[in-house]
Structures are given as C-alpha cells and as structure tokens.
Specification:
With 324 residues, the chain is α/β, with parallel strands linked by helices. 34% of the residues lie in helices and 15% in strands. A 7-stranded parallel sheet has the order 8-7-6-9-10-11-12, sandwiched between helices. Strands 2-1-3-4-5 form a 5-stranded parallel sheet. Helix 5 packs across helix 7. Bound molecules: glyoxylic acid (2 copies).
C-alpha cells in the first residue's frame, strides 16, 4: 500500500475504504499504548488515528514531523498539542456534530437521575430498604419549570437548551461569545454573567472545552455562589471542576448534588473520597456512547484520516491554518 497508518484502538466500524490505500496497524489491547510505545510507532507511519486517552504532545509530534495527519475520534482535542501540530503543518481532525445529541441526551439523563435520585433509589431498593410508600422518601427538586444554567453555549450547550425548552425551564447561559438574537429567542435562552448563572440556576451544566481558562473553572468560590439546592452536571472534561473543592461542597451540602461523566483524573482513582458520597453520580465518560453515534464518529475519523493521507483538506479540521 501507499501509506502506513496506526489506529490506537479497534473501531466500531469497517475499515475497507482505508484498507484500499493504507497498511493498517490496529492497537489491539484494552489499555491504550504507553506513551513511549506510541512515540516509537509514530515514527514509522503516515497517519495516526487516536483517541482522547492518547497523549499527543510536542515531543511525540516532533518524533515524526512528516506525519500527514492526526485524526482524533472525539470532538474534544485537549489531549493534542495543536500548536505543535500546526508548527509542523500537520492537520488535526476531530468529529464534531455527530455526537451533539447523544451527549446532550446523556447529560439530560444525569440531570434527571441526580434530581430525582434514581441511582440512590436503585441502591435503596436492592439493599432491601423499601418497606412502604412514604410521603418523604427520596425527595428531590422539580425539573420541570426549574432554572437551567448552561456554561458554554456551543453545539452541545444549545442542544441542552432545546431539551430544557420542552421541560418549560427558564434557560440561562454564559459563554465568551453571545449567541445571535434569533437563536436566543428560538431557544428561549438568556445571556447572563457567570456569577449570575451560578447564583440563579437550579441546575448548572458544563459544556465548555478544557483549556487554561477553564481548568478548575469550578472551585470553592463558584460552589459558594451556587444555591444550596443546586445540582452540577459535568459531561465536558473532568479538570474543569476542581475535585477537592467538589468534595468539600458536596460533603458540606454547600450544593445538593452532582453528576459527572468525566473526572480528574480519568479513570477516577478507586480511593477517591468522591466515591463515598451518596449525592454524587459518576458514569465512565460515556457521553457519546450510543451505537449509532460511535459508528458515525469512527467513520468521520476515518474520512479525516484518508483526506489527510491523500493531501486533501480534512472535512473536519481543528487547525485550518495549516492550509493558509
Ligand atoms: C468525548 O469526550 C469527545 O470529546 O468526543
Ligand atoms: C461540542 O461539540 C460543542 O460545540 O459543544
């Protein structure tokens, strides 16, 4: 074949189109390749298809500056040093759009589950504690008609607003960029400051990228501003929330509950104090994990990879400056 590629994990789709033009190595193990192994392998390939568990830093990219493409099967790309890739004119692909609804659906499931104590209720039942119908058993807040605060109003944040509209919620959002007035009106979403959102929301849901600006965006000061009845949901990236501060807030009932699909670090250490809390739900980074969505993500990552190998513009490129 013309090209050599490495795929860092078996993918939930077929590889025929890629096989036609490339010799493919698929990393077969459950754990991702160790950093040194990946850096070694990268030297012998033309294209890399990676996951968010692969650390693609400057040194790894410098190990093969002739790499034609880095294609990530995820929408987020905080694991990749984009500036280093751009400096070597290596295009980086990602998979936006196809996972927007799946991720918003999981976020909504967590919001509902945390509010109405679904996971606690399941534990309670299995532990044989259900003895009768009780007027005050496992009470939570209303979801319908409550105030939702959306932090980061990109595709997924907006998809949350669409869902919230159906529940008759008041919708607040904050973002570095204000949305167009027609979109705000269509979604019924009000642009507010981060502080106002923290103070007024019954549910706060995070949909920003992870960057230097958003690292530990949620820490003691933010939890102190939130209502004691408030629930935090994070399906974006773990390090946006300071885990020690979250533990303090939840154990002191500074806020009522939280639901996380992402943690810092991942996976969450089995001795993390967070795992002892009843008012916290944690799922293992499954926001985009519908069968249809994962296949679409894999197909999109392969399309980006093939375009990069052929020297064509990637259909979904993170750093289009490389074409400038
Ligand atoms: C998953 O977290 C993604 O970024 O696609
Ligand atoms: C990611 O897809 C986002 O824009 O929220």
């Amino acid at each position: 074949s013309q090209f050599k590629v490495l795929i860092t994990r078996p993918l939930p789709t077929t590889l025929e189109k890629l096989e036609a033009i490339a010799e493919i190595e698929v990393w077969p193990e459950r754990q991702p390749p160790a950093y040194d192994v990946l850096r070694e392998k990268v030297q012998a390939i033309d294209g890399l298809l990676c996951l968010l568990t692969d650390q693609i830093d400057q040194a790894l990219i410098a190990a093969n500056p002739a790499l034609k493409v880095i294609s990530q099967m995820a929408v987020g790309f905080d694991n990749i040093d984009i500036a280093a890739a751009t400096a070597h004119k290596i295009p980086v692909g990602h998979t936006p759009g196809v996972l927007t609804d799946a991720t918003a659906d999981l976020t909504w499931a967590l919001l509902m589950a945390a509010a109405r104590r679904v996971v606690e209720g399941d534990r309670f039942t299995r532990q044989g504690k259900w003895q009768t119908w009780e007027p005050d058993l496992l009470l939570g807040p209303n979801v319908s008609g409550a105030t939702l605060g959306i932090v980061g109003f990109g595709r997924i944040g907006q998809a949350m607003a669409r869902r919230a509209k159906g529940f008759g919620m008041r919708i607040l959002y904050t973002d570095p960029h204000r949305a167009a007035p027609e979109l705000e009106q269509d979604l019924g979403a009000d642009f507010v400051s981060f502080d106002q959102l923290l103070q007024e929301a019954d549910f706060v849901t995070i949909h920003t990228v992870l960057s230097a600006e958003t690292h530990h965006l949620f820490s003691d000061r933010q939890f102190e501003q939130m209502q004691r009845s408030a629930i935090l949901i994070n399906t974006a990236r773990g390090p946006i929330v300071d885990p020690a501060a979250l533990y303090r807030a939840l154990s002191a009932e500074q806020i009522a509950g939280a639901a996380l699909d992402v943690t810092d670090p991942e996976p969450i250490p089995t001795d993390s104090p967070l795992l002892t809390l009843e008012n916290l739900i944690i799922t293992p980074h499954i926001g985009s994990a519908s069968r249809q969505t994962r296949k679409q993500m894999a197909d999109m990552a392969i399309a980006n990879l093939i375009a990069g190998l052929k020297g064509d513009r990637l259909p979904h490129c993170v750093n289009p400056e490389v074409y400038g």
